[in-house]
Amino acid sequence: MSAEMAQDGAPHPAEPTWRLPPQVRRVLLLVPPLLLAGLEAVHPQPQMNVQALMDASTWFAIFHVIQLALIGLVAVSVLLLADSFGRATAWATRVGIGMFLVFFSAYDTLAGIGTGLAMRSARDLSAAQQEGVFLVVKDWPGLAWPFALSIVGTAGWVIAVGALALAARRQGAPRREWSVLGLGAVFLLGGHPFPWGTLAFGCFFVAALFHEMKAGRGGAAR
């Protein structure tokens, strides 16, 4: 959907195509990124040894189950904000969000939930067997082959949110809105645990909040 032209010749977003009750839309737009930003602040980061991973294993698995659900909801938040700029059906949004959902979720399941459950199960094994399980999973959250899933998923976030920041700038959104949105795209390159994940999803929340505040004053097409 292309932008229409305002009377002064400046582009502005077309009418959104997602017809949701305003309260529902606002909840879906603002709450998921805020919750995910807060969740990343308590991301488990245990020392990489057998005992530390076993001690943190239950919370490690539970944390990533919660994160997995919020990833899906944050994808909806991105689509809603993109729709307000007429960009929900743009190729960058579709491809980017698709990559983020599929590959980041796959990484989260394997490196997060899988590692936690494996080390939790290892509690009932002998010390030698515990060490064997540890040697298998210890690199999954880091620079091992599953990390490629995280790279592709993160690239999807950068594509979708970065393109949205550019669209917001071209359509005359305030500098604070598109610049914070752009920062949200870039920060996730540092990884999703605190501080970078909190900054990435927190910036998206702030940009969406700026957009809603402007819309509430009649400054944006709804």
Radius of gyration: 20 Å
**Tally of domains:** 1
Distance between the termini: 14 Å
CA-based shape: elongated
SS strand fraction: under 5%
| Cross-sheet strand order for the largest sheet | 1-2
Mean pLDDT equals 90
Q: Count the helices. How many?
A: 7
Low-pLDDT segments, ≥5 res: 1-11
Number of strands: 2
Helix content: 55-70%
Characterize the biggest β-sheet: 2 strands, antiparallel
Q: Give the H and E element order.
A: EEHHHHHHH
Structure class: mainly alpha
Structure in words:
- It is a single chain.
- With 222 residues, the chain is an all-alpha fold.
- Helices cover 69% and strands 2% of the residues.
- The protein has one domain.
- The N terminus is likely disordered.
- It has a two-stranded antiparallel sheet with strand order 1-2.
Summarize, please:
Helices cover 69% and strands 2% of the residues. The protein has helices spanning 22-40, 50-84, 91-121, 127-137, 147-170, 175-187, 196-216, and strands at residues 4-5, 11-12. Strands 1-2 form a two-stranded antiparallel ribbon.
Write the layout of secondary structure elements.
Blueprint: E1 4-5, E2 11-12, H1 22-40, H2 50-84, H3 91-121, H4 127-137, H5 147-170, H6 175-187, H7 196-216
Helix pairs in contact: 1-2, 1-7, 2-3, 3-4, 3-5, 5-6, 6-7
Give the tags.
single chain, mainly alpha, two-stranded antiparallel ribbon, 69% helix, 2% strand, disordered N terminus
